Amino acid sequence: MTKNVGPEDRIVRIVIALGLGALLYLGIIEDTAAIVTDGVMEVAGKGAVTVLDARDAISSASTAKASRPILVSGVVVHVLPAGARFDLTSRSLYEVTAPLPSAERAEIEATEAGMRRLARRVAREDASPVRLRAVRDEQQPAHSGNEEAP
Q: Which domain holds residue 116?
């Protein structure tokens, strides 16, 4: 019987290597880079980097018989897409911030612009935001909603 070698076999071999003492594995997909600066890895490119951390794993590798499978348990798996940052010393993920949808980004930018205009007006008129709102409300005609339609 011919045995096909697939991704499952690769994972088994990697986990066995981790059980034998390799404490960290980095798998980098094509068109992806792991840029390491001062112990911090940042992922760039189209794919992802897989980190297998066996620092706290349990293994029977030291007592296993030559032809018997070994036990490996407790390997921590991280799959990191582009933009993810990972501390290789502490083996921890930096906070992930997802990009905002363009509509939300536009709303935030419009609100910030309005707040800047208000701050300039407050500084120019030496008035508080509460006072400026009161003046604005006085200048606008009041609508009670009880008027009849013509």
A: 102-139
Most distant pair of Cα atoms in the chain: their distance: 96
* CA–CA distances in Å: residue 39 to residues 47, 52, 53: 21, 16, 15
**CA nearest 55: which of 80, 92, 11?**
92
Q: How many domains does the chain have?
A: 2
Q: Indicate if 88 and 29 belong to the same structural domain.
A: yes
Q: Are residues 107 and 64 in the same domain?
A: no
Q: Which of 57, 56, 62 is nearest to 20 (CA)?
A: 62
Q: Comparing C-alpha atoms, which of 96, 114, 116 is closest to residue 42?
A: 96
Q: Do 17 and 40 belong to one domain?
A: yes
Express each pLDDT in 91-134 by its tens digit. 998 877 666 678 887 888 888 888 878 777 767 766 666 776 77
Cα 52 from Cα 47, distance rounded (Å): 17
The three-point CA angle 11-17-19 to 5° equals 105
| pTM exceeds cut of 0.70 | no
Tell me whether residue 33 is in a domain. yes
